[in-house]
Amino acid sequence: MLAELQRQFADEILRGGVKAGIYSKTVLGALIGALEDSFEACRATVGAEFFGAMAGRYVRSTPSRSPSLDDYGDTFADFIADFEPAQQLPYLADLARLEWARHRCSTAADSQPMDPARLAEVPEALRDSLSFKLAPGLALVASDYPIDGIWELARNPSLPNVDLDDGGVSLLVHRNGATTLHVRLQPPEHQLIELLLEDVPFGGLCERLDEPSPAPALIARAIRLGWITGLA
Amino acid sequence: MSPLTTSLPAGVGLGLRSQHFEQVVEGRPALPFFEALTDNYLADGGPALAWLERVRALYPLSFHGVGLSLGSSDPLDEAYLDRVASAVDRFEPSWVSDHLCWTSVDGRHLHELLPLPYTDEVATFVAERILRVQDRLKRRIGIENVSAYLEMQPSEMPEWEFLALVAERADCEILFDVNNIYVSGTNLGFDPQKYISEVPAERVVQLHLAGYSVEEDLLLDSHGSPVQDPVWKLYRNTLEKLGPKPTIIEWDKDVPDFDTLLNEAQLAQTVFDEALRAG
Ligand SMILES: [Fe+2]
After folding, report:
1. Which residue, B39, B33, B96, B98, is CA-closest to B72?
2. pTM of the entire structure?
């Protein structure tokens, strides 16, 4: 009896039915509020009204599946990519991907930098099978548009306009202590992180990284910058 | 389980907000405790957890959550419960509480404190879930009365009777929200004084005060303004009736500067002290 009653009430809330009373407004408002918090740059870019309409469509089609409101919005970027009225802003879905990666990274497990000397201590014979642990929350976001510039502009509208013809970027999202950051990667670094995300060991990295990027030097740099935090 | 306790220091504390972490840790305001929203500290890492460590080193904590969905027909979310349990182990709060409501069904989470039908059968059902949570956390939890914007049918008893029944069957504590009884009383047409006189005083371990807002013909539990006059009056009555129970101010929407919150806590402390003197 309770299950049926709750199911019907939840349906009524999510469809905005009269029997749910004010609860439709408070529930959908909380979901929209979560999107506003996690996708601030998208909101600033398209304006509160457009964002509200877009978020309103999303929350009606996408129930929250986690008790934590922080988990809500993981498919919002995909939704934006298919959202007809946002088609004139082809970079918007990628901007949302960047914001979601930052949001996730901001509460990922804490990690300590690794001592670069540990790599040299690994015996030569074991080196090829060595795997690397990436910092928790680290993510790659690639786009055909300069979304880092668009992100900055959303936060600070007095900056000069971004030229969309500036071309694409590969961004690495990671955390430095309490601060979540994203930095532009050069193609060899992008390739390295991609391979590390696939858990390719040292031997495979040396084979698969395009010349002329010496794998050991790239890895040493990734350790120094705190992207790689351990060996496995 | 051990006898009901009132282990939190007496007096008026504040809900802890991320906007004020630094002021709390640097300024060490003279407050008896802080209440942390459990759900804000269940992540794997990040700055909020680091701040909470620092606050915990200085103050006792109360953990107040919204995600247990104690009244839901869904199975208890064990993964969520595990995360609460590890946060409780790590921060050792003086109290742990959630709400007498449901927030999810069929795996869909509504993130709203939804009212239950108040029947004997539902009281038993919810009490059993609370018992399982208490087993897992190895401690008693508190359940809070929520603000209601409509009456869930079929209900066969008033809310205070349902609350007392659940608390009795689960042998749990009650977190009594004074603003919520004013809001629900106004919306549903019951007398908050009656509620205060019927709630089992010995199970009430903590009180909440907050501001409400008016929307259409309803009061909403909005937590975005100072405590309003009718609620101050009910707070006095509550302290007279239930005794000087530790209290916090909940202000988590449109969070004001820290001094405004401290001032609000001071107002409540004055009422609290008067009640203490009146004995
Ligand atoms: Fe409350």
Report:
1. B98
2. 0.94
